[in-house]
């Protein structure tokens, strides 16, 4: 039998360890990219939920009677409809009775202003925007410009706030 030369025995222990270290470093770097992509996708998913909640609040306000909402914003001088004005009642539900002259069903309003989706509670604020209303135009008396803001109740970061603008229209032009 032929004996192998001393330099042709295979990989040394140092070469194997170096290859494992290099592969580990590359694997950890790639894992970091995937973790970053996952957190970005989760943030976008939360923003999508908040945008849909803002649209829901806007649609809800559009379905309410225009005159009481207009009276609340214009005549009474209240610029906001906020979940902070809704108190907890005896059944551990939020009661928005302070808005009883503005909306037909205050329990539904409480659900719109404080929804809970996937175990996360959100706070919805509806703000009247008088600066967007051009009183010189005749159709402006049929429109109320509003800004709906949605934020997660457990986070105060600016990225976690979504704003949707829209108009509440009078029943006469719906």
Explain this structure.
With 174 residues, the protein is of the alpha+beta class. It has one domain. Helix content is 40%, strand content 21%. It has three helices and seven strands. The protein has helices at residues 13-63, 66-75, 106-113; strands at 80-81, 87-88, 94-95, 116-117, 120-128, 143-152, 161-169. The strands form two sheets. Strands 1, 4, 5, 6 and 7 form a five-stranded antiparallel beta sheet that branches. A two-stranded antiparallel sheet has the order 2-3. A hairpin with an 8-residue loop joins strand 6 and strand 7 (161-169). The N and C termini lie far apart (98 Å).
Quick recap:
By secondary structure, the protein is of the alpha+beta class. The chain is built from three helices and seven strands.
Q: What is the general shape?
A: elongated
The number of helices is: 3
Average predicted local confidence, pLDDT: 86
- How does the helix and strand content classify structurally? alpha+beta
Percent of residues in helices? 25-40%
Rg from alpha-carbon coordinates: 29 Å
Percentage of residues in strands = 15-25%
Poorly predicted ranges:
none
User: Order of helices and strands, N to C?
Assistant: HHEEEHEEEE
Distance between the termini: 98 Å
Number of strands: 7
Subcellular location: Cell surface
Protein name: Prepilin-type N-terminal cleavage/methylation domain-containing protein
Keywords: Competence, Membrane, Transmembrane, Transmembrane helix
């Amino acid at each position: 039998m032929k004996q192998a030369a001393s330099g042709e025995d295979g990989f040394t222990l140092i070469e194997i360890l170096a290859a494992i270290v290099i592969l580990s470093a590359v694997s950890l770097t790639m894992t970091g990219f995937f973790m970053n992509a996952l957190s970005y996708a989760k943030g976008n998913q939360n923003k999508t939920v908040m945008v849909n909640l803002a649209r829901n609040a806007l649609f809800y306000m559009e379905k309410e009677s225009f005159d009481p909402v207009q009276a609340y914003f214009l005549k009474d001088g209240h610029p906001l409809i906020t979940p902070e004005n809704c108190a907890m009642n005896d059944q551990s539900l939020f009661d928005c009775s302070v808005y009883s002259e503005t909306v037909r069903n205050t329990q539904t309003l409480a659900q719109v202003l404080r929804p809970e989706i996937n175990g996360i509670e959100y706070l919805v604020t509806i703000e009247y925007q008088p600066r967007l209303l051009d009183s010189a135009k005749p159709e402006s008396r049929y429109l109320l410009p509003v800004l709906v803001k949605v934020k997660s109740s457990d986070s105060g970061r600016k990225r976690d706030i979504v704003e949707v603008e829209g108009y509440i229209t009078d029943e006469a032009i719906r």
